[in-house]
Design brief:
It contains 17 helices and no strands. The protein has about 325 residues and is mainly alpha-helical. The protein is about 70% helix and about 0% strand. The protein has a domain of about 150 residues. It comes from Pseudomonas panipatensis. Keywords: Signal. This is Tetratricopeptide repeat-containing protein.
Length: about 325
């Protein structure tokens, strides 16, 4: 199912490969070297935000190919990278692992290009790289929104097959949530994000009840709705509440307390709902975020973002 999802995207995704001119990762990348066997050894930590996510080795490639012959046929037709022969699996898996190395290292443009060129499993890290670039490095809001909307479009084309991969599924919900924060309420309602986001997060959590990223995003979604429409309308119309927000973040931290994004998302949520009443708690959350040693380029960007939020909050406090 996962391969079929990705193969269906291949036909239109490859057209985008040559169009990107992304700026490079702005920080030191030396700590994010996962060459050789380092990638497999670090994999559980690198993907801990997504719960249990399989390492893409040759055995996984063979298993998925034998389980989904239709996807295999589409894969072979798309780029010929893997036709189903066991002797080809190792080479294909090595290319896929290299794409993931580039994501974790912060080589986002290369990760997207090389991932889409695979036409199969590379679609997932390619779009993950695009979400990260959009969120942290896009030069302006218009480009950020365009890139996020493109991620949504890719997964929309796959229809119900989105449920095949938790990273693809989360990336789509995350893109919608970030857009929902910035777009006017009428636009968000017209696009259906207020119903789609919780539905997609529920689907993730039905399979992985303790996925930290999904739980934190759900908490942030609750707070974002309350911020825009208020507690009463939020509760009566959208089923959100401050209690649910707190519960989702608490569950996320119980699952994994060392993800920078969880702490700064919670800090933002506290500000949205409580304002200055929970200012110290929000500051403490930001301090926890910046105290985390990044394992990936993504986490380095998150820590840097948390640092900016903390500095801004401290400046506002000092001016009062």
């Amino acid at each position: 199912m996962r391969l079929l999802l990705l193969a269906l995207l291949a036909a239109f995704s490859l057209q985008a490969v040559a169009d990107d001119n992304w700026k490079p990762f702005p920080y030191d990348q030396s700590a994010f070297d996962y060459s050789g066997d380092k990638l497999r050894a670090a994999w559980p930590r690198l993907t801990r935000g997504f719960g249990s996510y399989p390492f893409p080795d040759a055995d996984w490639v063979i298993k998925m190919a034998s389980s989904h012959p239709e996807a295999l046929s589409k894969t072979a037709a798309a780029n010929g990278a893997f036709s189903g022969k066991p002797e080809e699996a190792q080479a294909y898996a090595a290319k896929l692992q290299e794409v993931w190395r580039k994501v974790f290292h912060g080589d986002f443009a290369e990760a997207k290009k090389d991932g889409l060129a695979l036409g199969v499993g590379g679609q997932v890290p390619a779009m993950f790289a695009q979400v990260l670039y959009a969120m942290f490095l896009a030069p302006n809001q218009d480009e950020k929104q365009r890139l996020l909307e493109e991620v949504i479009s890719y997964t929309d084309q796959a229809g119900p097959l989105l449920n095949a991969d938790p990273i693809a599924q989360f990336g789509r919900a995350y893109a919608k949530a970030r857009l929902a924060e910035e777009l006017p309420v009428p636009v968000v309602l017209k696009r259906g994000y207020t119903s789609e986001i919780p539905k997609e997060l529920d689907a993730i959590l039905a399979k992985q009840p303790n996925q930290p990223y999904a739980l934190a995003l759900y908490g942030g979604y609750q707070a974002g709705v309350i911020r825009k429409v208020g507690k009463m309308v939020g509760r009566m119309t959208y089923g959100v509440s401050t209690d649910k927000m707190e519960q989702f973040f608490a569950r996320s931290f119980r699952a994994s307390d060392d993800l920078p994004i969880g702490h700064y998302e919670y800090a933002n949520a506290l500000g949205y709902i409580y304002g200055d009443d929970q200012q110290q708690k929000a500051l403490d959350q930001l301090k926890q975020a910046i105290a985390i040693k990044p394992s990936t380029a993504m986490e380095a960007l998150e820590v840097a973002h948390a640092q900016k939020l903390l500095q801004s909050a401290q400046q506002r406090t000092a001016q009062r």
